[in-house]
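haha ok so turns out i had the wrong file open the whole time. this is the CORRECT one, sorry everyone. sequence first:
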Amino acid sequence: MFEECRSTAQIASELRVSEKSVREWRRRWTAGGTLALASAGPGGADCKLDGEQRKQLAVVLDDGPVAQGWADARWTLTRVAEVIERRFGVGYTLRGVSYLLHRMGYSLQVPARRAVERDPEAIEGWQRRRWPAVKASGGAGRLDLFPGRGGSDPATVEEQDLGTSGAHPGGHGVGQGLRSSLDRRARLSQTG
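then structure:
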């Protein structure tokens, strides 16, 4: 196209690129010919680890962090950077480690955090007994998720265990403060 003396606008339109790119290519072509237009490859810095070192790192990562002396089985960017530094004597930033791992085919995995008190049997029972009702009602909006705790099902109101009244932080049993003030008002109205 340059040899045909086409305009910058024509070339940009035909190749669907900006005119600025075409002008840069024309400068290169004028200075060095067709070979000057060859791609230099992907941008960015070269990898600090060679192919063999990356294979060794993959083996270390697959063995897990416990094999490298950590107490838990969780790789972090900091830990991987430490392993690379110890094993190959090459320093990486955390972002560099992230790019390296991505290039090697590893991806971010976020562990599922579960409470120590988690009771799988209780969860299974809830899913088996209660979930069908939740699903059938279209959500938990009208469903009593805590049966026996003052729910809206009139058939179970008499069966509900509301528990015993404990001591109120103010020194009165729950409801006793209200009851005694109502008694006082009643006595005052009778005498007054």
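Residues 154-168, 171-178 have pLDDT under 50 and may be disordered.
again sry for the mixup
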